[in-house]
């Protein structure tokens, strides 16, 4: 028997097929969301935890996405917000069927479907040597209210509705517009986060909190924001956006610079200049291991 590591090292991903699959799945999920958009009061809503809601719209959208992915890419693992799963095979899909659930349930038209494919170490995702670490290689973030489809492919680029996008060229943190997200579910990191927010308010041109991490990252990728940081997220919130930012010429990294991508949900991102300054701003407030 060959080990899974050896099997993975021989895998070559077809990223062209993968992006097509992801786009189809995102549209399928968004169609479910929008079918509920005008009668949200009829939705059955459950509380997973404090300030962490899930509705039948989330569940049905995820089911529609999973149907597409399982039919067209059965060899890949799946990790989804509502149904779970595990990383396996040469690559794994990370799915958030509704990023911005609170916005959706409140009638605020700012939410998205987020789908990413993360290739595992040893997999070949482009010509050349296999990847040495787990890496997002396909990312799709679809905003059905604006009909904006953000898509990115490893080594090729990022696009918005078919037009290539790039991060901003803002050179300084003092000239930047930043995005962030406040603690809303896990408040244990508030002592770290609140001083960061205070510094950002004092130093940046503006700070925005819109409530959908996938769109925050997509907006960094297309230059609407110059930088973005947040803590307390989940892998499916950030996987697709990480790829979009990187392929748009920006930087998106784990806040602690330990994981190869922000799988722990603590990230700093931006164009290269703003990223450096933003990371330097947040780092002094991070708790150090005892």
UniProtKB/TrEMBL annotation:
<keyword id="KW-0479">Metal-binding</keyword>
<dbReference type="GO" id="GO:0007165">
    <property type="term" value="P:signal transduction"/>
</dbReference>
<dbReference type="GO" id="GO:0008934">
    <property type="term" value="F:inositol monophosphate 1-phosphatase activity"/>
</dbReference>
<dbReference type="Pfam" id="PF00459">
    <property type="entry name" value="Inositol_P"/>
</dbReference>
<dbReference type="InterPro" id="IPR020550">
    <property type="entry name" value="Inositol_monophosphatase_CS"/>
</dbReference>
<dbReference type="InterPro" id="IPR020583">
    <property type="entry name" value="Inositol_monoP_metal-BS"/>
</dbReference>
<keyword id="KW-0378">Hydrolase</keyword>
<dbReference type="InterPro" id="IPR000760">
    <property type="entry name" value="Inositol_monophosphatase-like"/>
</dbReference>
<comment type="similarity">
    <text>Belongs to the inositol monophosphatase superfamily.</text>
</comment>
<dbReference type="GO" id="GO:0046872">
    <property type="term" value="F:metal ion binding"/>
</dbReference>
<feature type="binding site">
    <location>
        <position position="237"/>
    </location>
    <ligand>
        <name>Mg(2+)</name>
    </ligand>
</feature>
<dbReference type="InterPro" id="IPR033942">
    <property type="entry name" value="IMPase"/>
</dbReference>
<feature type="binding site">
    <location>
        <position position="81"/>
    </location>
    <ligand>
        <name>Mg(2+)</name>
    </ligand>
</feature>
<dbReference type="GO" id="GO:0046854">
    <property type="term" value="P:phosphatidylinositol phosphate biosynthetic process"/>
</dbReference>
<keyword id="KW-0460">Magnesium</keyword>
<protein>
    <recommendedName>
        <fullName>Inositol-1-monophosphatase</fullName>
        <ecNumber>3.1.3.25</ecNumber>
    </recommendedName>
</protein>
<dbReference type="GO" id="GO:0006020">
    <property type="term" value="P:inositol metabolic process"/>
</dbReference>
<feature type="binding site">
    <location>
        <position position="96"/>
    </location>
    <ligand>
        <name>Mg(2+)</name>
    </ligand>
</feature>
<feature type="binding site">
    <location>
        <position position="98"/>
    </location>
    <ligand>
        <name>Mg(2+)</name>
    </ligand>
</feature>
<feature type="binding site">
    <location>
        <position position="99"/>
    </location>
    <ligand>
        <name>Mg(2+)</name>
    </ligand>
</feature>
<dbReference type="InterPro" id="IPR022337">
    <property type="entry name" value="Inositol_monophosphatase_SuhB"/>
</dbReference>
């Amino acid at each position: 028997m060959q080990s899974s590591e050896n099997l993975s090292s021989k895998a070559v991903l077809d990223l062209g097929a993968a992006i097509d699959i992801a786009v189809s799945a995102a549209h399928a999920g968004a169609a479910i969301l929008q079918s509920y958009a005008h009668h949200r009061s009829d939705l059955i809503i459950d509380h997973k935890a404090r300030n962490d809601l899930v509705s039948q719209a989330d569940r049905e959208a995820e089911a529609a996405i999973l149907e597409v992915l399982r039919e067209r890419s059965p060899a890949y693992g799946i990790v989804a917000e509502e149904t779970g799963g595990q990383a396996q095979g040469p690559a794994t899909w990370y799915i958030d069927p509704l990023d911005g659930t609170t916005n959706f349930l409140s009638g605020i038209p700012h939410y998205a479907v987020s789908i990413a494919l993360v290739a595992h170490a040893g997999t070949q995702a482009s010509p050349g040597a296999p990847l040495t670490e787990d890496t997002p290689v396909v990312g799709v973030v679809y905003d059905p209210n604006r009909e904006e489809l953000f898509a990115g492919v490893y080594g090729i680029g990022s696009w918005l509705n078919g037009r290539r996008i790039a991060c901003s060229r803002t050179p300084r943190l003092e000239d930047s517009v930043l995005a962030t997200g406040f603690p809303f579910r896990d408040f244990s990191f508030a002592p770290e986060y609140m001083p960061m927010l205070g510094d950002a308010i004092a130093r940046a041109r503006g700070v925005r909190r819109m409530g959908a991490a996938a769109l925050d990252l997509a907006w960094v990728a297309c230059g609407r924001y110059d930088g973005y940081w947040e803590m307390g997220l989940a892998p499916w919130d950030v996987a697709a956006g990480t790829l979009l930012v990187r392929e748009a010429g920006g930087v998106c990294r784990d806040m602690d610079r330990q994981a190869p991508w922000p799988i722990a949900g603590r990230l700093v991102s931006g164009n290269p200049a703003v990223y450096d300054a933003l990371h330097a701003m947040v780092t002094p407030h991070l708790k150090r291991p005892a």
